Amino acid sequence: MKRTSFILILIAWFFMLTPSWVLSNDKPKGNPPVITASYAVEKGYYGNIWKIYIEAFDPDADMSRIAVVVHQTGYGHYPTDWIVVKPPYRKQMKGFIQWNTLSSRTASLREWTNITLTVSIFDRSGHESNEVVFPFEFVSGAHRERKPPPPFNEDGLPRLGYVFIDLFDPTVMAGEAVREN
Question: Could you tell me if 75 and 19 are in contact, meaning their C-beta atoms sit under 8 angstroms apart?
Fold first, then answer.
């Protein structure tokens, strides 16, 4: 009897917390946002400020969140980082998201550490845009970022938000990291 009551409570809890459009067979109304252009450099040094340029359009003018997912070779995926879209950019945006790659989890990353950053945009109805993937390699001899190509080469592009993901070096054991410092 206790087990049945527990299962019924779990089912009721699921239905209370799940948005109605997820449970119905109907797709959310409206159209998904579309990322129309993107750019980012592919190499940089550890601690580099990495700018990821995106241009997007939403015919419904309800873009709400930018999803950023990082995959690091040798580690895997980090939890998704969410950037709230400010009201002036809910229909159309062109700018950059900024990631200060210096991490509080490690003093350094090994040379040639590879990551991929995946960006997509969600609207208020739950539609997800196309995904864009940016490969990046940490290289100490990388050149400073030059002016990006069109359509991102104009002055005064807005910063759309910050990425808050702390990388760590998975090849260094926790005890070794303490001894190195």
Answer: no
